[in-house]
Amino acid sequence: MQKSIKRTLGCLSLCIPLLFGSFLLAGTLDYKSQFLYFIPQLTDVAPCRSGSLPLRVYMYDLPPRFNVGLMDSNFPNNTPVTAENIPSWRWSDGLRKQHSVEYWMMASLLYQRNDESQEAVRVMDPDLADVFFVPFFSSLSFNVHVRHMTETDTVDEKLQEGIIRAQLHKMLNGTKDVIYDEAHASEEGFKTSAEQMRLSKFCLHPAGDTPSSCRLFDAIVSHCIPVIVSDKIELPYESEIDYKEFSVFFSTNEALKPGYLINELRNISKEKWINMWLRIKSISHHFEFQYPPLKEDAVNMIWREVKHKVPAFKLAVHRSRRLKIPDWWR
What we know:
Layout: H1 2-26, H2 31-35, H3 40-43, E1 55-59, H4 101-110, E2 120-122, E3 131-133, H5 138-145, H6 155-161, H7 163-172, H8 187-198, E4 202-206, H9 215-221, E5 225-229, E6 248-250, H10 252-255, H11 260-266, H12 270-283, H13 298-322
Parallel strand pairs: 1-2, 1-3, 4-5, 5-6
């Protein structure tokens, strides 16, 4: 018995130094994964929720005048909007094109199918929802009704003037190999812009526009390398997509230096441009809207971005409920 105990202690005295030595050498060793499998009751615990499940969205039922009625004035206001009667998006409908995101999000929730391609599903019980969606086409509503307002010097119009864009237009207009055309928000204007984008190597995306601008999406779908001029900008899907692989960035000060932006673009080698072009072709489907929605198209990518942001919001809410000193961890 004593020999057995001594033998066991000898093994332990040998194993423990080796064990801690491996910790020191490995540095990043996940000790939990090495030891917790010995404890069945810990390893059998299921996660709170699998990350592969779709986002659960509760969508309010608003009268059509707040959403599809802004697109089609003949849509009856006492009729619920369904997957069967939702009006088709009119691609040639001028300015409405850049105010369409709410439409695609609403349509995707109405069109439900049981497959893994959908990043969000509609739930009818608000207690089951991860997020809540109000199908009010706010941006479209403002631009539909602003024409009836007597005050013309609105904040939205000031934004749409785009101070930086105006300065760039003055500086670049007439430059060799540069097409800088202020197209009107009409069917013909959109056709002209789309054609010019498809024929160009680079497409300028300056700051100073409304948040609903579709210029970046149009450039990417046209396989035109975006030239993004901004000091602060939140880009779509950036947690999954590295824009440096297919875009060129300039600060406002850099872009407004005479000749700097054009010289930098001309110095980009053919090989680098081709690599950026191939990359933009491979991800352009993430920036296309359609109905019914398709896997990893624009609206599904938007819902995925929302899903990625939910845990941070929940963490902040849970902490705020228990903490007496708010924001101490920042």
